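SAMPLE LOG
Freezer: B-3
Tube label: C17
Construct: single chain, 248 aa
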Amino acid sequence: MAIVNSRATLEGYCLRRLGDPVVEINVDPYQIADRIDEALQYYQEYHSDAIVKTYVKHEVTQIDFDNKWIDIPDRMIFVKNIFRTSGVGSGGNLFNFQYHYRMEDMLLLGHNMNLADWIQREQYVSLIDQQLNGAARLTFNRHMNRLRIDGTWSTDYPVGAIIVVEGYETVDPDTYPDVYNDRFLKKYATALIKQQWGQNLIKFEGLLLPGGVMLNGRQIYDDATAEIEQIEEAMQLAYEMPVDFEVG
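STRUCTURE (predicted):
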């Protein structure tokens, strides 16, 4: 059994599933490449194993400050939240509000405040912050690879501030070749190539070949279409991520 760990081995696997080399598969290599691309795209959009939660650190530059948006890596498909940590623009730890606030927490916990009281105070402060400041308003489009942040950049995101972007990115199959061996991806790519094969043969429908053999491209196409629908439904029902992403 050949190990499927690249585009080439995946293509070979799909063709063998369809009968190659015993049966001639009338599909052009460029058509096979296109169907593999479509299979990967659908797999990355609907299968939970194709994406991973990630955090990307970004230091605000003057260009970011002027544009009011930051560049996002190509593989990022969803942006859930952003966090800002202390950077050059924060004035250093000794003159940072968060530093003194946490120092006060440590002193109170060390004297007369227990953990339950501290948690209640933190929740109350978080509620005040949410009501007065609210969450950062984000606008992200995966095709533009830009994360636009609405807010007061001069105070919230000055040059030198560190922004941590929380989001989801696709798993690169070339970096992690085990993706090519996913059973849903293999079945889906095979069905797409089979559908292309049937579509290519439809124009020869009814043509009688030597020996009385008649090509039936319509049947191959219809069978492949039914397989594709079953695979897509099974993938979405069993492996699709819940619809709870926050894009902006």
